[in-house]
Amino acid sequence: MTTKHSAIDNSETERLRDRIADVLTRARERTTLLTGSVDEPDLIAQHSPLMSPLVWDLAHIGNQEELWLVRDVGGRDPVRADIDELYDAFKHARANRPGLPLLDPGQARDYVGTVRDRVWDVLDRSALRGDRLVDGGFAFGMIAQHEQQHDETMLATHQLRTGPAVLSAPAPPTVTTPVGGEVIIPTGEFTMGTSTEPWALDNERPAHRVQVPAFAIDAAPITNAQYLEFIADGGYDRPELWSQRGWAHRGEAGLVAPQFWERDPAGQWWRRVFGVPTPLRPHQPVVHVCWFEAEAYANWADKRLPTEAEWEKAARFDPATATSRRYPWGNTEPDSGTANLGQHHLEPADVGAYPAGASPAGVHQLIGDVWEWTASGFDPYPGFRAFPYAEYSDVFFGGDYRVLRGGSFGTDPVACRSTFRNWDHPIRRQIFSGFRLARDLGAADV
User: Fold this and answer.
1) What's the whole-model pTM score?
2) Residue 382: exposed, middle, or buried by beta-carbon count in 10 A (0-12, 13-18, 19+)?
């Protein structure tokens, strides 16, 4: 006889199974769009030495799914053990991947399809509890996030490719009156990180208390109009605004504006958006800037980039309950009214376009639109333990990285929450990166 308790357990397990199926399906539909919208030469071409050929990403997605879900979780025989090294991201630098004996597009599609068929069987048979790797569906959630992270990488590759536009999406929301100004976050402790989010990755763990002095943070990301003022005031020609490393990089890379910006003979600025020249929208968050550019702008504005802890406190802390939320607006999943995520649009929305997504303190668009550079390097939290493998986070700690927070228009909700940590080198700007500023409080603010 089935007890009430076991019936509830079974119902919860089936809901979890349905959720896993949904996020895996959504990720594969996006992968199919990004790889199916270009022809075979585009799939195998390397559009930038910073990026892999799209066909490598495709097969790598399948290989990671096979390693973790088919072999580890399912205990099944390998589908293609002979290609493991080809698609190991640590074995071959991106610039060298076009020269490898990769699966061709047809083979790659057949491979990822075969792997996914076996994964459905593994999912059907998994109890989704007991072992840490499968408890709460963690391994499945990890793989869904991995695929969506590579989908965002492939979206960045699409931005770098030349030729006719192949992607389209509705325009993001606009506003007539943008959000501006600052918000003061009072001094005090808050809980940073998580120990309860079932699909949180190891670098988000464990939850820990952090004391954060009072500070001011911009209510919205820096906009194109604001960044144009920096350019007009000679921001790229004033070494006093740049760190020594930043100034050297500015010269070596020939930086004069955000990536994909161009100025026509009449002096008007345009931005190339996935192959389409687009007039610069003044209220849109600036995107495709590196950390050194953000740092120089902050110096010009007599402010600074927020620390990672400041950013997370602004995004999560609810002073009414003295608790940390999953998202700025609460604990419910993102939707089209709270954040610009999931490639529903192909560019950021104007600042102030998502008032329902603001934090309790009144900070807007902390989730979605643009990844936001912070002042912090990528380091482990106190009590960190690598899981399920050191190569996801541990090998990157302490390197030449800066943390980015909040996700972008190209980030899927499954791979975005207020605790999610992204990181990259300070010279990178092919990613969908922007920033907002913070500052210490003075006597006039008290």
Assistant:
1) 0.96
2) exposed
